[in-house]
Design a protein that fits this description.
The complex is a heterotetramer.
Chain A: H1 8-26, H2 30-52, H3 63-67, H4 79-110, H5 115-151
Chain B: H1 3-24, H2 28-48, H3 52-77, H4 90-107, H5 119-122, H6 125-129, E1 133-136, E2 139-142, H7 151-155, H8 173-177, H9 190-193, H10 210-213, H11 217-225, H12 227-248, H13 267-289, H14 298-316, H15 318-324, H16 327-350, H17 366-400
Antiparallel strand pairs in B: 1-2
Helix pairs in contact in B: 1-2, 2-3, 3-14, 3-17, 11-12, 11-17, 12-16, 12-17, 13-14, 14-15, 14-17, 16-17
Chain D: H1 11-26, H2 34-59, E1 64-68, E2 79-83, H3 84-111, H4 117-136, H5 140-159, H6 167-197, H7 202-211, H8 219-235, H9 244-251, H10 254-280, H11 282-288, H12 291-311, H13 316-337, H14 340-371, H15 382-385, H16 387-401, H17 407-421, H18 426-452, H19 467-485, H20 488-501
Antiparallel strand pairs in D: 1-2
Helix pairs in contact in D: 1-2, 1-4, 2-3, 2-4, 3-4, 3-10, 3-14, 3-19, 3-20, 4-5, 4-10, 5-6, 5-10, 6-7, 6-8, 6-9, 7-10, 8-10, 9-10, 9-13, 10-11, 10-13, 10-14, 12-13, 12-18, 13-14, 13-17, 13-18, 14-16, 14-17, 14-19, 14-20, 16-18, 16-19, 17-18, 17-19
The chains are: A mainly alpha, B mainly alpha, C mainly alpha, D mainly alpha.
Organism (chain A): Nannocystis pusilla
Pfam families (chain A): Oxidored_q2
Protein name (chain A): Cation:proton antiporter subunit C
């Protein structure tokens, strides 16, 4: 169990993360992206919790202390990664909530939640804006050229 | 291959399949529901890995709140993904494959799964767990590390690892030579705690033994050692709530009260919910209060409390909920939780200790002070979490009624 | 740390700064504004002239080594903004300060005569530019020099872009672009390189700062040569080809700007910096020993000849003057590049001598434009009869450019030829002779045309020529009440009196310099005597 | 109960908890000017604390101050560790935040609906809290938590530009997704390091990594390094991972743009300092690993590409945003040199750029306030209409160019000096210099439009922005000039920070 088999558990987290990452990149639907982002983060949680496992270990709740008993009771899994991941889970749900709020707002103003459509709208906006300023610049240039012509 | 690994493998297989389904299914509703299922499966995985608190949280958050949020959002944004012509996004696939390969490459030098010799198991955590709250030179404080405490012994799992422990996790040859046995490791020296009193600073203090009061080491880590992280975790939740108010709340003049769907005319629903809500609330408070003893804590309890309110709103309408918890009250309460937490820390500081040094709360029995502080902050977390969840629900629901 | 002090060199910077502030406050009352300008210029000259005797004192160099620099601010730990007076800077400051007064008088006539807009901005920027020039002249180390060099670029930019027409903005872009590119990419790199190699020593001292680094081998000869190239091309204001293009571009500015800044302050700031770097940073002797400076002679010589040839074919008067300036600047550089004590003297003298002649020429060009609205040489037939004073002054300026006695140009050319003999540099001799011929070829026809060709009959009403576009269109009658000189629409005479007074003075000075050049020669000799 | 309490020993934690508690209390400040006044008070107080903290650090014999939270020993609990570097960054972030809060009042009044000012300022103060928290901590995981606070607040703040332009929403969401992916990489990188070292304390991690035989060939450490580099690159908008930044800064409310440009990415860079120098150490990051090559190539490409892009922009805020990415390139190029002057230049540019860019975004915000837009066309002739604002813009622009006697020049000086001193890094010096030419190009388009073109339409009628906007703007611009004329203080602090970062450098 010391070879690749011993660390295969860490590979599944990579698989989950990558499924999530694929979703984030490949799916134009914003809700899908938000969900995929969640999967991506869950992969990391799995990594952390896997890190905490110890052979033959048990949950790190020390019942012996309550009993006042003296016997040793199997090794405990490492509580530190658990704590870190509790925090991370909270962070991920907060991020999800904010993302959803943004998506609702986007739906309200754009009428769609497909990223490619939104991007197209943004580009059109930008182009229109740019053209508006360009039109004026071009007009200025024309004016100057006409003036020059007039002088000549 | 032990049982953990076996069950783990099966569960993870299921999880992976679910994950693929979540990404690939076209109905967003199905995707959202599958997310709930995914979370429940994950909760099982956590249980299998003995991470009860994470499991509880995953079930409450992933299976509960996240799914509610997603479905609440789908009501506004439509239920289906736009059909895409090409199902497989090749660049994304290549990119993720490369990234994944890099990550796996990084795991190659890791200690194997469950290796007790992994640095994380023997470097700091054993000492951390053996920390006590007592008197250092007559004043309350943490002993760093307590005198008379044999760090080396803990690092060696109470003498079960002999010979040198190498720093390089790749080096596994030593394990064959060591007399490592797996049973009976990593238990704090409770026998020391029950020895007769000695003068302060030289022995672990039985009545003030902090770990003695908090059997759930996850909670002690969460609320004490890394209590500062948890304070900000609460703040993250608070921030999310405030952000949602900022982004979604309608202007005040339009009023809060919008008639949502009311199901109170259905007798069974009404009766069952009326009966169960008190129990849900009690359970929530129980989880908050008893986080030190078993799995659970402020966060999980807060989510449970929130579900009671949400259930109430679903059955009796949000108008009824607003009569119980008016938005200004919930707004204020979201902050109150964070203030309880940070206030507890500040009081410790004002009493002359470091920020969040709970032992300042009871100078005679620092261990009790530690315990009191942890309980206080757990309540803080619980209040903020429940009120923020309620606020988020309200904001999403309010949006629907327009 | 910032130190505040009122010693004379600092005063020389503060006075124009204060002037700029007062001018901007007095913006609403043109007469008061112009009075402030003149008073400021007078005060500045008084302060600058007051410093001269100390520099001319025989024991100056002995005290120079001992006297601490005047520290203004510690910009970086160990890097000070500091001033120190030395002969070359003194000479430069005197020329700039003295000509500012005349130029201010001229500006009043010109700006009002042509109904320019934004006159307050013009005077404010002008005063700021003069402040930068003073800082540049008295800079005590390379860092300070660079600070004021860049400040000069920045403060003169609004003057070049003054008209705000597309043409003006484009030209100003060229101006700023070339000057900033060269100074940032090469000069600054050179200065920081110097700082790194010398271990933080950037103080000007005769003989240069590199001796130790060269001696202990931390600075190799090729690196030393690269540093020299960085400096020479970094100082874009010296208009060494091919970075000279900003100078013709800057001619779009109102003529007083061209006159003072582009015949005196900015371009002279360039060659002044070149000279200062050669004398006080590299050290002529060190350059000779390592043989890294000889290429400069050929580049400068080529610049002289090519610029003169280009000037031959320019019909626009100011452009012809601009190319003449490019060529004349390289006289200074070629003299400096000979690296002998006498040639350094010649270079310093030519900075002064060229200033008087060139400002006269520009004044004359502006005078013609104001009075007759003519900008092209081909339009100048017979103008000498209508504007005799202007064209007489123009003739004197031309003679000075050619280097004929009794004008200023002869004095410096004389020293340059002496240095050429002394250093046995036949290439330079050939260049000087050829360029003298070329100078004559592009200046004398103008004089001839003005005085000896009859005025064409139909050309009495000035019309807007294509070249006018270059100078904008300020003939809007509703502005005419601004100026006290009536707008010329019919047969014209001389330009408004401030213009005539100013150009007469500079023309007189060009001749006077031939007879009374003691001060300039004294300072230049003092500079030479400081060389180790 | 207060007799045992002293401010000075608790300064490191007060810097973070005061804005935390203050931020939460902001929601109770009612309507009108209450929330703004409260936020100003809190940020002002924090600024005062950071000044005191700076004094303490400078006076400390060890060169740093350590604060163990909850009195848990640093190996087990969370430690705050303040040395010259974080004290300086804290001072910068707190100072600029304070001035920006002063500035925000009018701008926010106009751009954010009145009924949620209390929530807006709460998020605002919490953002500052998160940024300060990242800067002060010495615990790797605490960095992640506070990073998420600052990110979450920033997402919300950016999205509040939605009433002006709906693109604020997509900008915010894009940042949310990229930012979360980046933060996840950071989290995973920390996890890899935790696996190898068994600790979360930065100093402890460094010692463990140093003790690890053959860390250079440990694949876990290598991947952790790469993960952190990518994650931090996203957070600090290192080219080419900067895609989220231009849009976010362009469409955020004006005051938010000013706050973020001056603080958010700076803190990202600070994290890079900590991870590369303090945790991995110079020997690992820059000698064994080719971090200097990767970073300097990315930085140089960023300077050039974003410089050219900035020149092509017509929207001032977008132009400034691209310029920000380029300027971050300077900072990264500086510390990639891994020698004293390069790192010092990098540290000092964090401060200088924060001050200058803050002032510039404030000027752009003032134009927005008066005109409702800020493109090159609408600012024509504004030099006469809004003289103070445009003068501030020009002065700040000259700073970006690195004109002598502006703060930007000081940075440039150190960076070029560092590049000339490092072996074979002179191209960095060249890029730094060429980059400043690009800055001339985009700054000058504004100068030309504002001063040499005639106003048109409504911009001919506007007046100068209100004093409450102009004064803070000039505080920052004035500071950028002051610290350009006399950079002895900033120079010495950054040299000190650089030396302590490079401590064990060969």
């Amino acid at each position: 169990m010391t070879g690749a088999l011993g660390i295969y558990n860490y590979w599944i987290y990579v698989l989950l993360m990558m499924i999530g990452l694929y979703g984030v990149i490949a799916k134009p639907n914003l809700i899908k992206q938000a969900i995929a982002l969640g999967l991506f983060q869950t992969g990391i949680f799995l990594y952390y919790i896997s890190m905490a496992v110890i052979d033959g270990g048990t949950a790190p709740v020390w019942t012996t202390i309550l009993d006042g008993a003296q016997k040793f009771e199997g090794p405990y899994d490492n509580p530190l990664p658990h704590v870190l991941i509790l925090t991370a889970i909270v962070v991920s749900v907060s991020v999800l909530a904010v993302a959803l709020a943004l998506i609702i707002n986007i739906k309200r103003t754009y009428g769609t939640i497909e990223y490619d459509e939104i991007e197209a709208m943004d580009q059109a906006d930008k182009r229109a804006d740019y053209q508006r300023s360009q039109v004026v610049d071009a007009a200025d240039d024309l004016e100057q050229r006409l003036e020059g012509h007039h002088h000549a | 291959m032990n049982a953990v690994v076996l069950i783990d493998t099966l569960l993870l297989l299921l999880v992976t399949v679910t994950a693929v389904a979540i990404i690939e299914v076209r109905s967003l509703y199905a995707s959202a529901i599958l997310t709930g299922i995914y979370s429940l499966l994950m909760a099982l995985v956590w249980v299998n890995m003995h991470s009860m608190d994470v499991s509880f949280t995953e079930a409450a958050v992933g299976g509960g709140i996240s799914t509610i949020l997603l479905i609440g959002t789908l009501v506004h944004v439509g239920r289906d993904e736009k059909p895409i012509k090409k199902r497989l996004h090749v660049p994304a696939l290549v990119f993720t494959a490369l990234t994944g390969a890099a990550l796996i490459y990084g795991t190659l030098d890791m200690p194997r799964f469950g290796d007790p010799a992994a640095p994380i198991h023997h470097y700091r955590v054993p000492e951390m767990m053996a920390q006590t709250v007592g008197f250092v030179n007559g004043t309350p404080g943490k002993q760093k590390p307590p005198e008379g405490f044999d760090v080396e012994r803990y690092r060696r799992f109470d003498g079960r690892i002999t010979g040198p422990i190498p720093d390089d996790p790749k080096d596994t040859a030593w394990r064959e030579n060591s007399a490592l046995r797996l049973e009976g490791l990593m238990v704090p020296q409770v026998h020391a705690a029950h020895e007769p009193h000695a003068e302060p600073g030289h022995h672990l203090h039985p009545p003030d033994d902090f770990n003695g009061h908090v059997p759930n080491s996850v909670t002690s880590l969460l609320a004490a050692y890394r209590g500062y992280d948890t304070m900000f975790e609460t703040t993250v939740i608070f921030t999310a709530g405030v952000s949602l108010i900022l982004l979604l709340r309608r202007p005040r003049r339009e009023g809060y009260l919008q008639s949502g769907a009311v199901m109170s005319d259905q007798v069974i629903l009404r009766v069952v919910s009326k009966l169960s809500i008190p129990f849900i609330l009690i359970f929530g408070f129980y989880v908050i209060t008893h986080g030190e003893l078993g799995p659970g804590g402020g966060f999980q309890g807060g989510v449970v409390l929130a579900t009671a309110f949400i259930l109430y709103a679903l059955i009796f309408g949000r108008a009824a909920l607003y009569r119980v918890v008016p938005p200004p009250v919930s707004d204020i309460l979201t902050g109150v939780g964070v203030l309880i937490y940070s206030g507890t820390g500040a009081v410790c500081m004002l009493l002359g200790g470091k920020f969040l040094d709970y032992s300042m709360l009871n100078r005679e029995l620092p261990g009790d002070g530690e315990s009191l502080g942890m309980t206080l902050v757990e309540y803080g977390v619980g209040i903020t979490v429940s009120m923020v969840m309620l606020t988020i629900f309200n904001q999403l629901a309010e949006e629907r009624s327009t | 740390m910032i130190h505040l002090d009122v010693s004379p060199p600092l005063l020389a910077i503060y006075i124009p700064l204060l002037g700029a502030l007062l001018i901007s406050l007095a913006g609403r009352w043109p007469n008061l504004r112009e009075l402030v300008t003149l008073l400021t210029a007078g005060a500045l000259l008084w302060v600058v002239a007051g410093m001269a005797p100390a520099v001319l004192a025989p024991d100056f160099w002995a005290s120079f080594a001992r006297a601490p620099a005047l520290k203004i601010a510690e910009v970086l730990p160990g890097v000070w903004l500091e001033l120190k007076v030395e002969p070359l800077g003194m000479l430069f400051a005197l020329i700039a300060g003295g000509l500012w007064i005349l130029n201010s008088v001229y500006s009043i006539g010109y700006m009002r005569g042509n109904h320019e807009n934004n006159q307050t901005r013009f005077y404010v920027c002008f005063a700021l530019a003069i402040a930068s020039v003073m800082g540049l002249a008295f800079a005590g180390n390379l860092f300070t020099l660079f600070v004021f060099y860049e400040a000069l670029t920045l403060t003169t930019y609004p003057l070049v872009a003054h008209k705000g027409t597309a043409e003006a903005i484009r030209s100003a872009r060229t101006y700023l672009g070339i000057l900033v590119v060269t100074s940032v990419c090469f000069l600054l790199a050179g200065i920081i390189g110097t700082y790194v190699f010398t271990g933080g020593d950037m103080t000007f001292r005769p003989g240069g700062v590199f001796t130790r680094a060269l001696a202990d081998g931390s600075l190799t000869a090729p690196a030393f040569g690269i540093l020299f190239i960085l400096y020479m091309y970094g100082i874009g204001k010296a208009a060494l080809m091919p970075v000279h293009r900003w100078l013709p571009a800057a001619m779009v500015a109102p003529t007083p700007v061209s006159a003072l800044l582009h015949a005196v302050a900015v371009v002279k700031a360039g060659v002044f910096t070149v000279l200062k770097v050669i004398v006080y940073v590299f050290g002529p002797a060190v350059l000779v020993r390592y043989g890294v400076g000889s290429w400069l002679i050929y580049v400068a010589g080529a610049t002289i000849l090519i610029a003169s040839c280009i000037a031959l074919f320019q019909d626009n008067l100011k452009r012809r003057l601009a190319y003449s300036t490019v060529s004349q600047l390289s006289y200074v550089i070629i003299a400096a590049a000979l690296l002998s004590p006498l040639s350094i003297t010649a270079a310093a003298l030519h900075i002064a001598a060229h200033a008087f002649g060139k400002i006269t020429l520009f004044f004359a060009a502006g005078s013609i434009y104001t009075a007759a609205h003519k900008t092209e040489i081909s339009q100048l037939d017979g103008i000498g009869r209508r504007m005799p004073i202007t064209m007489a002054a123009f003739t004197i300026g031309s003679l000075s450019m050619i280097g004929l006695p009794p004008t200023a140009g002869f004095v410096s050319k004389w020293y340059l030829l002496q240095a050429t003999w002394e250093t046995d540099a036949p290439f330079v001799l050939v260049v000087v002779i050829l360029s003298t011929l070329l100078n004559a070829a592009y200046f004398l026809p103008i004089v001839y045309r003005a005085f000896f060709v009859a005025e064409p009959k139909h050309d009495v009403i000035p019309h807007l020529s294509s070249a006018d576009g270059e100078f904008g269109d300020d003939t809007d009658p509703q502005h005419s009440h601004h100026g006290h000189a009536p707008h010329v629409v019919g047969p014209h005479g001389e330009a408004p009196w401030p213009i005539v007074v100013a150009l007469s003075c500079t023309a007189a000075a060009t001749i006077a310099f031939f007879f009374y050049s003691d001060l300039a020669i004294g300072l230049a000799t003092q500079l030479r005597s400081g060389l180790p | 109960m207060l007799e045992a309490f002293e401010i000075i020993p608790n300064l490191p934690v007060l810097v973070v908890t005061v804005p935390l508690i203050g931020g939460v209390l902001t929601i109770a400040m009612g309507r009108g000017k209450g929330p703004w006044a409260w936020a100003t008070l809190i940020t002002g107080l924090v600024f005062y604390f950071t000044v005191l903290l700076m004094q303490q650090v400078l006076a400390a014999k060890t060169g740093y101050i350590s604060y163990e939270l909850g009195n848990w020993p640093r190996q087990w609990g969370i430690e705050y560790r303040v040395d010259a570097l974080n004290a300086f960054i804290l001072l910068t972030v707190a100072g600029v935040s304070f001035v920006t809060t002063l500035y925000a009042q009018k701008s926010v009044e106009k751009e954010i609906p009145q009924d949620r000012h209390n929530f807006f300022y709460a998020v605002w103060v919490l953002a500052v809290c998160g940024l300060l928290g990242i800067t002060v901590t010495g615990d790797a995981f605490n960095v992640y938590v506070l990073l998420e606070i600052s990110s979450l607040t920033v997402y919300a703040l950016i999205a509040m530009g939605k009433d002006l332009n709906r693109q604020a929403l997509t900008a915010s969401l894009r940042y949310l997704i990229l930012g979360s992916v980046g933060a996840s990489f950071i989290l995973l990188g920390i996890g890899y390091l935790l696996m190898v070292t068994g600790t979360l304390n930065m100093e402890d991690m460094h010692d463990r990594l140093a003790a690890l035989p053959d860390a250079v060939h440990n694949r876990t450490v290598l991947v952790a390094f790469a993960l952190l580099l990518v994650g931090l690159g996203m957070k600090m908008a290192l080219f080419p991972l900067h895609m989220w930044l231009p849009k976010a800064y362009t469409y955020a409310p004006s005051a938010v743009s000013a706050l973020l440009s001056a603080t958010a990415t700076k803190v990202g860079i600070y994290m890079a300092f900590r991870f590369l120098f303090t945790i991995f150490g110079v020997g690992f990051s820059f000698v064994a690993m080719p971090a200097h090559v990767v970073l300097s190539v990315a930085a140089c490409a960023g300077i050039l590409v974003t410089g050219v892009t900035a020149v092509r922009q017509t929207n001032l805020k977008r132009m400034l945003a691209y310029s920000s990415v380029g300027q971050l390139g300077y900072i990264v190029a500086g510390f990639a040199l891994a020698n004293v002057h390069g790192v010092a230049g990098s540290v000092i540019h964090i401060f200088n750029h924060a001050v200058m860019k803050g002032g510039l975004f404030m000027a752009a915000g003032a134009i927005m306030y008066r005109l409702g837009r800020c493109d090159l066309r609408s600012i024509r002739g504004l030099g006469k209409r809004m003289p103070l604002t445009m003068a501030a813009f020009v002065a700040g622009g000259l700073g970006l160019v690195g004109f002598p006697l502006t703060a930007g020049f000081i940075s440039k000086w150190y960076l070029v000096q560092g590049a000339l001193e490092a072996p074979h890094m002179w191209p960095v010096a060249a890029v730094v210099l060429v980059g400043s030419l690009l800055a001339v190009a985009y700054t000058w388009r504004v100068v030309e439009a504002a001063y040499f073109q005639e106003p048109e339409g409504e911009s001919a009628l506007v007046t100068e922005a209100p004093l409450s906007m102009v004064a803070p703007m000039w505080i920052l611009i004035g500071a950028s000039v002051y610290f350009g004329v006399s950079a002895t203080f900033t120079g010495e602090i950054s040299m000190r920070a650089a030396k302590s970062l490079l401590g064990g450098a060969p």
